[in-house]
Amino acid sequence: QVQLVESGGGLVQAGESLRLSCVVSGSISSINAMGWHRRALGKQRELVATIHSGGTTTYADSVKGRFTISRDNGGNTLYLQMNSLKPEDTDVYYCGAVSGRFSYWGQGTQVTVSS
After folding, report:
1. Secondary structure (DSSP) of the chain
2. Distance (Å, whole) CA 112 – CA 110
3. From residue 15, how far is each of 35, 52, 62, 68 by CA, in Å?
4. Beta carbons of 22 and 48 less than 8 angstroms apart
5. 64-114 confidence digits (pLDDT tens)
6. Which of 16, 54, 63, 87 could form a disulfide with 12 if both were Cys (CB 3.0 to 4.6 A apart)?
């Protein structure tokens, strides 16, 4: 019923930038919060960034000052602007949304940063 589709991942060199997008489709009453996780095989899940209904944002320490999360509420679209990328940022990035007691997640988009 609800689907989240990520896009924008790819291959970049260290220091370059990427912009991830997440489009939410389906019936949903209201989205309380949206965010990005990353959890590649062999890595622990990390909550990279979140944005709440009021517009407040939070970031993992590892990405503060480099990543920016934003949301187009009208279009139900989530963005993650990633600047000054590091090889350590290499991972699969997952878009998520929270509506009441329900949580939804996308299939992920691969980000690879070369040295």
Report:
1. -EEEEEE--EEEETT--EEEEEEEEE--S---EEEEEE--TTS--EEEEEEETTS-EEE-TTTTTTEEEEEETTTTEEEEEE-S--GGG-EEEEEEEEETTEEEE---EEEEEE-
2. 6
3. 23, 28, 15, 15
4. no
5. 999 999 998 676 899 999 999 999 999 999 999 999 899 999 999 999 999
6. 16
